Amino acid sequence: MIFLFTDFGPRGPYLGQMTAVLQRLAPEVAVIDLLNDAPAFAPRPSAYLLAALLPELQPGDVLLAVVDPGVGTERAAIAIELDGRWVVAPDNGLVELAMRRTRTVREHVIVWRPERLSASFHGRDLFAPVAAALARGDRSRLAPASLSRMPGWPDDAAEIIYVDAYGNAMTGLRAESVPADAAIELAGRTLTRHRTFGDARPGSAFWYENSLGLVEIAANGTSAADLLGLQPGTPLAIRATPVA
Amino acid sequence: MIFLFTDFGPRGPYLGQMTAVLQRLAPEVAVIDLLNDAPAFAPRPSAYLLAALLPELQPGDVLLAVVDPGVGTERAAIAIELDGRWVVAPDNGLVELAMRRTRTVREHVIVWRPERLSASFHGRDLFAPVAAALARGDRSRLAPASLSRMPGWPDDAAEIIYVDAYGNAMTGLRAESVPADAAIELAGRTLTRHRTFGDARPGSAFWYENSLGLVEIAANGTSAADLLGLQPGTPLAIRATPVA
Amino acid sequence: MIFLFTDFGPRGPYLGQMTAVLQRLAPEVAVIDLLNDAPAFAPRPSAYLLAALLPELQPGDVLLAVVDPGVGTERAAIAIELDGRWVVAPDNGLVELAMRRTRTVREHVIVWRPERLSASFHGRDLFAPVAAALARGDRSRLAPASLSRMPGWPDDAAEIIYVDAYGNAMTGLRAESVPADAAIELAGRTLTRHRTFGDARPGSAFWYENSLGLVEIAANGTSAADLLGLQPGTPLAIRATPVA
C-alpha cells in the first residue's frame, strides 16, 4: 500500500493529481490518504507526526511524504528504508525522528529525474513516480547515500504539533516518556491524565495517551483547542507531581 | 462495498488509519467515504442522517458508522443486519431510526476483542476489523443479541440535522411525511416548497425534497444557512396551509 | 480512470454517493478525486480550472464534471470527447475552454434517463452512470449533437479563479500567454515573476507559472490570499515592462 502524508490540506487539486500518477504506475496498489493536513510549510512538527504514524505501515508499504517548503530549490530528494517500510520525501528533516526510532535504516537519494519536472509540484512529478516504483519493488531510481539532513530535533517535543477536527491537540511527546501520574501545564492550566474521554467531566480538559501513543490534550464533548487557545507551537511543561 | 459514516471531519489522521485496516483485511472490497462530517459527538442527529443514507447501500454492503462520544466506556459494540445490509456501530442509538424503518432486522453484539485496543479509537481497532470480516461474509466475531439501546427518538425530527458545504440545511423530516403544499417556519421566516434550485428566485430561501428524501432548506445560488442563521439543532415547524 | 471535478466541497454526503454509483457500475475502474472545491455555483471560473486540469487525463479516461447551478432545469446534459478523453457535464459552458483548446472534439448529448432522477443530484443519478458506462467503452446512452452552449468566455481570464489551501491564488491566465518579464498588478501591488517559492524573499508575494501552466500569485511561506486580500473574481492586469 502507498500512504500519503502531506500538507496539501483537505481540498484542492494536488492530492488528485498525485494519486492519478500513483494509480497509473501502480494500478494494483491501494493508495491511502493517511494525513494530508500536516502543518503547512513546517517539516519540524510534521516530523513528529510522521514518526507517530509510521508504525501503521507494514514492510513493503511506502509512505509518500510531501511537506516541502523548499520545493524547486537545491534540497535533495530521498527514499529511506525503515525496517522494510519506505519513506519517500524531500530531505528537510521530515524523516529524522522516524529514522532515529528505527532499528534498520537504509538511506538513498533519488537520482532519477522525470521528463516533466515542474518547479512547484515535485509530489506529482518526482516523488509519486518513485513511490509507485518502490511499491512495485523497483529501486532503480535510487542510489545509496548517507546524506540525509538531520536537524537534531529533540526526541520528544514539549509543544502542540497538531489540532484535529474535534479540537483535540496532539503533542510531540510520546506517552511512554511521561509518567502516568504527571500533570501537563499549558495555557496557564494544569491538566491531569485520564484514560479516555468518557472518564472526564463533560467540558473539562485533560491529557491522555492517544491512539498513536502520543500525549494529547482533549476535553470531553468539546474542543480543547478552543477551550484553552491551543495551536501548533503552543508550549507545555511536564510536572512530575500532579496537583490534588 | 464498505461505506464510512463518521464524525471524524474532512481532515485528520483517522480516516486513513481506518481505511488502511479495511484494505489490509478486505483488499478486494471498495471503501467509500459516504459521510465523514456527521455532527460531532452527536448520535441523535447523526441517526437521522444514517437512516436517510442507508438506502444507498445494497445487500451485502457494510456501513461502518463511528459517532462515538462514549468510546472507551462500557457502551457495547454492535452489528445490525438490516434487510441484508450491515451496520457496524457503537450502541448509542445511532442505528435506531434505520432499524425502525427496516423490515428484517437482526441484532448482534461484537464479542471479539482485538490485541490492540486503544482507549479512544475503536473505529480503527475494533469496528474496522469487524466490518472487513462482514464484507467478506465472516460473522464469527458476533453473537446474536437483542440489546440495542433504543433512546426512543421520534420518527421525524423537526430540526436542522446537517448543513452541507453549500449552506443547504437538511432536516430530520422525511419529505413524504410533510404535505407538498405545507410551509416550513424557521428562524422567523415562512418558506414554501419548490421542486429544485432553479425554480426559486436567486437569493431566496425555500424548502424542497432533497436527493435523500429529506426536507431541506435551501436558497438559489447562495447559502441558506448563512442567510437564515441555521445550524444543527435549529428548530422548525410545519404549517399545513401555506401563506399566500 | 474516472476523475471527479465538482463544487461539492471537501465534505458532505455527495461525493460518496456518486463514487458508490461509479464503483458499482465500473468496479474495475479507479476513481480519482481530482478537484472537488471548484468555485460553487460558478461554471465560468470552473471552466478555466477544468481546461487546465484536463491534460492530466489520458485517452480513455473520463472527467465527471459537476458544477451545476441549473440542476433540475432544462439545461442539457452532455458528453464531449476531447482527443480521446471524455468530459461528462451539464451544458452550461463548463467545458467551453477545454473544447477550444482541443484538436479533435466530438459533441454528444445524453439521451438516456435513469429510473431514479432526483431534482437536485444529477451527479449521482444521471452523470455518474453515464461516466461509468463511458469508462467501460459503452456510448449507448449518447447521441451526437453539436449543441453545446458556448458563452464565449475569453481564452484567458485576467482574474483570480481559485485559492488553494495554502493561500496561493490561481489566475485564468496561461503562463505561456504572459511574457516572462511582465509584472502583474493586482490589489494595488505590482508583482514580478519568480521561478518557485524558495527564490522569493520569505513573506513576499510574487507570480510564477504553476504546475498546471497557469499564472499563480503566491508568497514564500505564507498565504498570498491573506496577504493581498485575494479571492475568486479579484481582477488583475499584465504590465509588459516590469518595475525596477
Q: What is the multimeric organization of the chains shown?
A: homotrimer
| Residue fraction in strands of chain A | 25-35%
Helix content of chain A: 10-25%
Span of the ends, CA to CA of chain A: 48 Å
* Secondary-structure-derived class of chain A: alpha+beta
Compute the average pLDDT of chain A. Answer: 95
For the CA atoms, what is the radius of gyration of chain A? 19 Å
Strand order of the largest sheet of chain A: 2-1-3-5-4-6-7
Notes on the structure:
The structure is a homotrimer of 244-residue chains. Chain A contains five helices and 14 strands. In chain A, a hairpin with a 5-residue loop joins strand 8 and strand 9. In chain A, helix 1 packs parallel to helix 4. The first copy, chain A, starts with a strand and ends in a 5-residue tail after the last strand. Chains in contact: A-B, A-C, B-C. At the A-C interface, helix 1 of A face strand 2 of C.
How is this fold's topology laid out?
The structure is a homotrimer of 244-residue chains.
Chain A: E1 2-6, H1 14-25, E2 31-35, H2 43-53, E3 62-66, E4 77-82, E5 85-90, H3 96-100, E6 105-110, H4 122-135, E7 142-144, E8 157-163, E9 169-174, E10 183-186, E11 189-191, E12 205-209, E13 214-219, H5 224-228, E14 237-239
Parallel strand pairs in A: 1-2, 1-3, 3-5
Antiparallel strand pairs in A: 4-5, 4-6, 6-7, 8-9, 9-13, 10-11, 10-14, 12-13
Helix pairs in contact in A: 1-4
